[in-house]
Design a protein that fits this description.
The radius of gyration is 19 Å and the shape is globular. The protein is an alpha/beta fold. An eight-stranded parallel β-sheet has the order 9-8-7-6-5-4-3-10. The protein has a two-stranded antiparallel sheet with strand order 1-2. Helix 5 links the parallel strand 6 and strand 7. It contains twelve helices and ten strands.
Length: 313
C-alpha cells in the first residue's frame, strides 16, 4: 500500500479504472471485475460522474451507479475497505466548477454510489471562468460536512494548480493531495516538466490515467494485427510513430527478461516515476486483469527503467 500525498488514504499501487462500467463491461461483468480486483488486494476504484455519458442511451453516472449497486450487494464492510475516487465538473447536468454545481453534483454522486462519503473527489477539468477560491470553498465545506475526505485535481495546468494550492494555504481551505493527469510511456510531455515539478514540490501524489495508452501498451497492437476493442482507433495511432515502435521493442525485451506481460512492464515503469503513487488501468474482461495486478509485484531495475525511458524519448 502507498499513501496519497498528505492524506490518510492508503491505496493499492494500481487503481482500477471504472470508465468501462456501463460501457464495455455490463453490470454482471463489472461486478466480476470488482470482485476479482478486490480479492487480489486492490482497494482503489476510480470513476467520474460523467462515465459513461458518451455511450448512446447513457446520460452519465452509469459507472457510479454500478459501483453503488456492487457496494449494496457486497455490504458495508466492503465499502469500508475501498477507497473510492470520483470527479465533478463534466457531467452533462453539472458542467463546470461553480459552487452550486459542486454541491448539486456531489449529492447526485453520493446517491448513485450508495455511500455517505467520497474518499477522493477530483475536479475533473479546470474551469478558468470560476475563481479557485469559489470551488475550493465549496469543496472545503463538503470536507467539513464529512461528505468528502480528500480532494484532487485533474486536467489542470501547472500555473492554475499552483494558484489553487496557494489559495488553500492563504484561505485555510481544503487542499489538493493528488493530481490525475494523462501520462504513460508514449505520452510524457503533458506531465513531465512544470506540472510534475509542482506536484513534487508540494507533496502531491500523481495518479495517472491512460496508463496503458488506450491499450497500446498492452502489446496487442502490432502491425497487421486486428484488435476488437472500442479503443482500437485511439491505440492504433501509436503504431504509426517511431516512438511507439521503439517503446514496443524495449517493452518486449524487458518483459521477456522477467517472464512478464508487456502491460505489466508498462505499468511498472509508470509506478517507478517520481510522484506516481498508483497508475489507473481498466480491464473489460477477467482475463485482462492478472497482467494489470501483476505490476504490484514487479520492480524494474534502474537500467530497465532507463532503457524504457530512452525508448520513449
Amino acid at each position: 500500500m502507498a499513501r496519497i500525498g498528505s492524506s490518510e488514504l492508503d491505496v493499492f499501487p494500481l487503481a482500477f479504472g471504472g470508465n468501462v462500467f456501463g460501457w464495455t463491461a455490463d453490470e454482471k461483468e463489472s461486478f466480476e471485475l470488482l470482485d476479482a480486483y478486490t480479492a487480489a488486494g486492490g482497494n482503489f476504484i476510480d470513476t467520474a460522474d460523467v462515465y459513461s455519458a458518451w455511450v448512446p442511451g447513457n446520460s452519465g453516472g452509469e459507472s457510479e451507479a454500478i459501483i453503488g449497486r456492487w457496494f449494496a450487494a457486497r455490504g458495508k464492510s466492503k465499502r469500508d475497505q475501498v477507497v473510492v475516487a470520483t470527479k465533478v465538473g463534466s457531467h452533462p447536468d453539472f458542467r463546470g466548477l461553480r459552487a452550486e454545481n459542486v454541491r448539486s453534483a456531489v449529492e447526485a454522486s453520493l446517491r448513485r454510489l450508495q455511500t455517505d462519503r467520497i474518499d477522493l473527489y477530483y475536479t475533473h477539468r479546470d474551469d478558468p471562468d470560476t475563481p479557485v477560491e469559489e470551488f475550493l470553498g465549496a469543496l472545503d465545506q463538503l470536507v467539513k460536512e464529512g461528505k468528502v475526505r480528500e480532494i484532487g485535481a485533474s486536467n489542470i495546468s501547472a500555473e492554475r494548480l499552483t494558484e489553487a494550492l496557494a489559495a488553500s494555504e492563504r484561505e485555510g481551505l481544503a487542499r489538493y493531495v493528488a493530481l490525475q493527469q494523462h501520462y504513460n510511456l508514449v505520452e510524457r510531455d503533458e506531465y513531465e516538466g512544470a506540472l510534475a515539478e509542482v506536484v513534487g514540490e508540494h507533496g502531491l501524489s500523481s495518479v495517472p490515467y491512460y496508463a496503458l495508452a488506450s491499450g497500446f501498451l498492452t502489446g496487442k497492437y502490432r502491425p497487421g494485427a486486428k484488435v476488437d476493442s472500442a479503443r482500437a482507433g485511439s491505440a492504433g495511432k501509436y503504431l504509426d510513430s517511431e516512438r511507439g515502435q521503439r517503446v514496443l521493442v524495449a517493452l518486449d525485451e524487458v518483459a521477456e527478461a522477467h517472464g512478464a506481460e508487456v502491460a505489466t512492464v508498462a505499468l511498472a515503469w509508470l509506478a517507478a516515476q517520481p510522484t506516481v503513487v498508483a497508475p489507473i488501468a481498466s480491464a473489460r474482461t477477467l482475463d485482462q486483469l492478472p497482467a494489470l495486478l501483476a505490476m504490484a509485484d514487479l520492480t524494474l531495475s534502474a537500467d530497465e527503467v532507463a532503457k524504457l525511458t530512452a525508448a520513449s524519448a
